[in-house]
Amino acid sequence: MSPGLPFSKETFSSNHELDPASRLLPASSQTSQYLLIRPTEDIPSFLKKDLCVDRLNHIHQYLWLAGQPMPPKPLNYQLATSREIVVDQRIDMHLVWERPQSLHIKPLPRYLLDTDFWATNLITCDGPCCAPAQSNHVAPDRATKCTKDIHKCALGLLYSYIALIRFECDLTIAQNHHLLPKDMTWEKWLRFVHQLLDNGVTNPSNINPRYLYGELRLSQLNKIYAFRYGSPLRGYQFTYQTYGELFRDYLGPLTAATIYIALVLTAMQVGLATSRLGENTSFQNASWGFTVFAILGPLIGVLLAGVVGIFQFCTNLVVTKRLAQRQFALYEDQKPQNQVP
Fold first, then answer.
1. Which residues lie below 8 Å from residue 64, measured CB to CB, with a gap of 6+?
2. Contact (CB, 8 A) for 182 and 175
3. What are φ and ψ of residue 133, in 5° steps?
4. pLDDT tens digits, one per residue of 242-271
5. Consecutive H or E run containing 324
């Protein structure tokens, strides 16, 4: 980049026209190496990242533990049940709800409402559409499968919106939360949904199997990932922003258990004061064992929470250090040869 102006005078004028694809896609996207680029530079990779739900497909056989195999409930029902709608661009968090009653919803991308974009980038075939993949030395059958996966994920996202926006008030809610473009009227939405229904979008064979389930509970997804992949600290989505939140979540149940233990010890003390239970050998042994447990149990729980926190801290430290080394090495490779550090 030259040391001149970073943008031209025409940037904010109406004469500076954008190409059709750029109008439909985000301003920038991130590569697997955390570099910011134009989405139009690699539209297939962008669509795969923006639409594919591979993480949920990997645990599809366990999704019944996190949700019901039925379409999501409309937006007016979500608000009526005191759920807060959280706008979230991450496709793997679409229709995932967490405490306290927060439902994550991905806004409907503009490009899914454009027939020209569908014809250029989202129509599956076995012929010319695989030519770009062949030129990049990718097997044709693999490229076709990838395209079909993206196609099913795109239809699945539309399917979810058919269920979310069933009434005119749902459309208003969606627009107020920036889930749909403001220029979408109720008449346009009716025609759009009717054509989708007539063209078989709701057929289970045409959509990604993740969308056969509606809302999914994040706590259950974390448990599924913890047992399926042996990652109890991360799970499906790490919900702790600070270590204080982590300790509060771990020590909260311990506090409730301590209160229960105190009640049991009080009851046992009253029982030992009676002649019937005070002379009972079995009850005395149980009281002795529970007393030892009451002393050691909370202490062990606090120590375990501390060990988990320390292990999480060390893991994050190592991951962050490795990421920093890899990224700065990448930045050095991209630095012009004649640039002085």
1. 213
2. yes
3. -65, -35
4. 666 666 766 777 778 888 888 888 888 888
5. helix 281-334
